[in-house]
Amino acid sequence: MRIKFKIWIETDDGKPIIGKGGVKLLENIKNTGSIAEAAKNVNVSYKFAWEYVKKIEGLLGGIETKKGGKGAGGTVLSEKLEKILEIYQEAENEIQEVIKKYEKKLNELNSS
Q: Which residues form a coiled coil (predicted)?
């Protein structure tokens, strides 16, 4: 048996901001410096990625895009936004450890 759990970050009034997919996209943008390349890496359309970046910028700020085309443009995440991604990953990892503990208990019960 398995236990499943999803986490996300939301606004104080309950609007979702960042979940697992968003973290993956933003991490790829951070690593590549490119929304287009990040979109390709996580298998979403450029339009979806661009709209997501605009949403995050509107809610949290911290995304700087530079126009310029191939080799001249780029996208950079602020230190604050990178820290938010780091905190999300820490929470995700910690929750996964707790889930493993309880899955083990379930499976021990199931095998006895």
A: 81-112
Listed in sequence order, the residues at least 6 apart from 16 whose beta carbon sits closer than 8 Å to its beta carbon are 8, 9, 10
pLDDT tens digits, one per residue of 60-69:
989 988 876 6
CATH number at 76 reads 1.10.10.10
Reported as a single tens digit per residue, the pLDDT across 66-105 is 876 666 678 999 999 999 999 999 999 999 999 999 999 9
Cβ-contact 92, 4 below 8 angstroms? no
Give me the domain span that covers residue 19.
10-111
Q: What is the pTM of this model?
A: 0.85
30, burial (CB in 10 Å: exposed 0-12, middle 13-18, buried 19+): middle
Structure token pair of residue 92: 């995700």
How far is residue 94's CA from residue 88's CA, in Å, rounded to a whole number?
A: 10
Domain count along the chain: 1
Say what the pLDDT of residue 8 is.
95
